[in-house]
Amino acid sequence: MATIKSLDDLKKIREEALAKRKVKSKEGNVQVIVGMGTCGIAAGARETMKAILDVIESQSLSGIIVSQTGCVGQCEKEPIVQVIVGDQPKVTYGKVGSEVARQIIKEHILGGKVVENHVIPV
Amino acid sequence: MRELALHILDIAENSIESDAGCVEITVVENSLDDRLTITIQDNGKGMDAAAVARVTDPFVTHRSTRKVGLGIPLLKFAAELANGSLSIHSELGKGTTLTVDFQRSHIDRMPLGDLASTFMTLVVSNSETHWMFHYQVDGARFDFDNEPIKAELGDVSICEPAVLAYIRDSLYTGVSQAQSAIPG
Fold first, then answer.
1. Which residues span the domain enclosing B64?
2. Nearest Cβ partner of A10 from B16, B152, B161?
3. Can you list the domains of chain A with their CATH numbers?
């Protein structure tokens, strides 16, 4: 395992990320929370998560924090994704497959416009 | 659930819910013994014997104090379909170890699925947790530990695109290299 070489690479990544973050911090962080209870996983939450991470990576989106939560009690609406942009109120989306996840990043996180037809009441 | 990797994700989420600071996942495929064994060990708050019985068989319990999911019984059933079994050893205050094994070649043995994607999801979305993954296929093995990565990153988020690329590459390369130990 070429751990040491890789960790050196990581050091470079860290320096780049720190430089980038200074630019981004004005707008505040974005939090994306994916429901990962048994219900979420069975409904495809891992693929939703994968789609979100793939977009962050391929479009070099800095400052998005992705995390998970357990079952939120609305199992029939899984996969559920919650989005918090800066100090705006939390928006909860239901039935978020890979395609909807990409749409949420594009329209809500990058475009500032909530994807109304996938919002669920909480 | 159609993949053992999804069950691993599900069981590991239980570890997170039990406040584990450290979770170790070991997957061993042995073609000589014809067994596939998965162990998920955490240092969370653990369960007493009654709670272990409850999570293993939810159909005989009266769930009033605590929600118990279907995750473990589903995995137990999948193991029993493939000449295997599931066991849980847990101690209050110390943690829980779940072991499940299968006859690897059994026609009803659920496919392992996308193990790297499960690992990636766990490491990124529970970045405070100490994760150790071991995947052994006959002679080949892949080990992953996120402590050195966390130490190097300091206060930089694991969700930075370049960091995600690095972790994804480590996990997918490691898993597929271990898998190439058994042809086909």
1. 4-179
2. B152
3. 24-118 (3.40.30.10)
Provide the CA B113 distance to its chain's centre, in angstroms: 12
Task: Tell whether the model's pLDDT for residue B183 goes beyond 70.
Answer: no
pLDDT for B22 equals 98
pLDDT tens readout for residues A31-57: 999 999 988 999 999 999 999 999 999
* B128 in any annotated domain: yes
Chain A nearest-CA residue for B125:
A67
Instruction: Tell me how far apart the alpha carbons of residues B150 and B130 are, in angstroms, rounded to a whole number.
Output: 9
CB contact under 8 A, B125 and A3: no
Going from the C-alpha of A6 to that of each of B27, B103, B163, B167, the distances in angstroms are 24, 37, 11, 10
The SS3 call for residue B101 is strand
Number of domains in chain B: 1
In a domain, B64, yes or no: yes
Residues from chain A that touch B159, judged by Cβ atoms under 8 A, are: 53, 56, 64-66
* pLDDT band at residue B54 under the 50/70/90 scheme: confident
Give yes or no for a cis peptide into B148 (omega within 30° of 0): no
Q: Would you say the C-alpha torsion B147, B151, B153, B159 has a positive or negative sign?
A: positive
Please answer whether residues A78 and A69 qualify as being in contact, where contact means their C-beta atoms are separated by less than 8 angstroms. Answer: no
